[in-house]
Design goal:
There is one protein chain. The chain has 265 residues and is of the alpha/beta class. It has a single domain, classed as Spore Coat Polysaccharide Biosynthesis Protein SpsA, Chain A. It contains 8 helices and 7 strands; from the N terminus they run H-E-H-E-H-E-H-E-H-E-H-E-H-E-H. Strands 3-2-1-4-6-5-7 form a 7-stranded mixed β-sheet, with helices on both faces. Helix 2 runs parallel beside helix 3, helix 6 runs parallel beside helix 8 and helix 7 packs parallel to helix 8. The relative contact order is 0.15. The structure holds guanosine-5'-triphosphate (GTP) and magnesium ion (MG). The site of guanosine-5'-triphosphate has 21 residues, from strand 1, strand 2 and helix 4. Guanosine-5'-triphosphate binds next to strand 1, strand 2 and helix 4.
Length: 265
Amino acid sequence: MCNVAKGAYEELIMANIIVIIPTYNERASIAHLLDTLELEFHAIRGHQMGILIVDGNSPDGTADIVRRKIKEHANIHLLVEQQKRGLGMAYIAGMKYAVQRLNADAFIEFDGDFQHDPKDIARLVAAFDGGYDYVIGSRYVAGGEVPAHWPWHRKMLSRFGSLFAKVVLRLPTNDNTSGLKLTRVRGFFTALPLSEEALLSKRYAYKIQFLHAMIAAGARAKEVPIAFLEREGGVSKSSLEDVTDSLRVVLTLAYRDFQKSPSGF
Ligand SMILES: Nc1nc2c(ncn2[C@@H]2O[C@H](COP(=O)(O)OP(=O)(O)OP(=O)(O)O)[C@@H](O)[C@H]2O)c(=O)[nH]1
Ligand SMILES: [Mg+2]
């Protein structure tokens, strides 16, 4: 009797949460990252945790390392794109796969180079358990940090970019370009711009469009402070084009909002 009641309770709270990790030439960190995530998952009670790697057909053999890890852990999945198509494209492919093929109730966007701390996943999941629909690992709330070694212009661009998006798009959040976040699927998945045609940027700036779409869909958003770390090996794929692209995405979304609003701003 007692077991039946416990079973029913677990069924009620159990969610299938998929951590989506895009990779391009992350051979240096991926095995260590997957092992660390698997260890951290032990600390998360009441949910089924899985990992989906979306590899941009990395020439350094990242996908082969993932295939070896899949033999050790049944909850790791791999999607290999024909070629590197940009971060936004990798994520929309990953999100569709996570929901349609892996039946995800929530997914987490996570970097493949250890810049996100695997320990923070439990904190994002705790906020999801608290009823939030969109949980952002935030560098720009009390307790949040960016890498100390970032040059001043990168610190300034990141901080100013977030502030610019907040003011222009009237967002309630402070870190509007964070790469670490959890999205609740039910009630929100269909509100996301999940096609190449709907996506305003195939690159990093897709993140601003997704945040804007979640807030417009009425998501309860929560920022949890994180320290964004130094990348562990490998090479950065971000470039100045991501900055101009982000500016273009913010202005396009603002223009669309303006067109929709009968009274304007
Ligand atoms: N599949 C795929 N993965 C990508 C692509 N671009 C970047 N990534 C991965 O996405 C994650 C974030 O990219 P990074 O290059 O680390 O970008 P960033 O964290 O903004 O830049 P750094 O702070 O300099 O590392 C990493 O795991 C990359 O390997 C892409 O076009 N396709
Ligand atoms: Mg990185």
